[in-house]
Amino acid sequence: MARHISYIQERPLAMLHLAGWAIYVAADYMDHALFENYNAIPTLASGIAAYLLTGGLALLYDRMVRLGAIFQHVVFFTFLYAGAVVWHKVHRIFHYIVFHETETVPAELERLVHLPFREWIATGFTPVLLFLSWAGFFFVCRQYLARRDEQARLRRQELATKKAQLQTLRHQLNPHFLFNILNSIDVSVQSDDKTTAHKMTQHLSRFLRSSLEQGEADKIPLAQELGMLREFVAIEELRFQDKLRVSFYVETETEKALVPAMLFQPLMENAVKFAWTERAEGFVTFRATGGDGTIVVMVENSKATGGGRKGTGTGLKNIRERLEILYGEDASVTVDDTYARFAVTVTLPKELAL
What's the pLDDT tens digit per position in 179-224? Predict the structure, then answer.
């Protein structure tokens, strides 16, 4: 069954062609049945002839696609008329002989062969109209399917572009993050604080392992994202000792929600950067709550210098670009910047992991 469905999906025009002439055969048979003519042979013969002739025309049209539109259509319609003439003769042979029993098939064929060329190419209005109707149907379907395929190609291209953009944005995060962590480990080693350096290395190892396990996935469960964030926070707390307090408040129902991978790490990194001070304890708060079909994540931090130090905004720009690619207008990022605190709120559509 799956093979048949695949065939139909790959060759929709061929299936429509077959279905169209099957409908014609059914309609012609019912028309004869109204007059108590139940012999299906003439109808089947006419239908098969029409199917083969018009199928050949369709193949001919596709083969001439590189020869220019004018030449292609002139040849097509010339052969279309010739096909209508041939079909008319086949139709006449079977219908007149079977239903009217006027002549035998060989006798009728012999008569047709000896007809003058002028009479031979003459045909009635009905065959020409029938074949022209098929041609109209053929062109409309062909145009529709070509447009559909082009739209599908553009969608695939757009998805590929978006995926490449997402990967680029994600890869921009990792080098900056790794540089800071490795620099902290180096400082600990130079200070002969081997215990701290060892713990930092362990947390970094677990962080990188989690990052590798998620692969190239665009979205991961929030619980998995939180696991990586906690490893990052553990490293930062080792760096700043008692000068930094980080808190997580996460509603249980939000942990299964899908979020963009590594989306909140730059927010936490910036929050730590601007919260830390040697003179007083800084705080960073990560809060995740569920709304009506949404998940709301807020990262808040104290401002160590009372608002005197400014960031570049690169992290926020990166996050906004990723959300635009993944969600369009369904996601938002808002910033609340006061003298003593800075908060970023990210609102995402709620998508639950299976």
Answer: 777 887 887 778 777 788 888 888 888 877 877 776 567 788 999 8
* Pairing of β 294-302 and β 219-221: unpaired
Phi-psi region of 32 (alpha: psi -120 to 50; beta: other; left: phi over 0): alpha
Helix ranges, the chain (H): 2-10, 12-33, 41-63, 69-100, 105-113, 117-120, 125-190, 194-213, 222-240, 265-275, 314-327
Question: What one-character DSSP code corresponds to residue 257?
Answer: B
Which architecture does CATH list for 161-349?
A: 2-Layer Sandwich (3.30)
Residue at token pair 């790794």: 178
| Integer CA distances (angstroms), 322 to 31, 113, 350, in order | 62, 73, 16
The answer to whether the pTM exceeds 0.85 is no
DSSP string for 258-291: EEETTSSHHHHHHHHHHH--SSS-EEEEEEEEE-
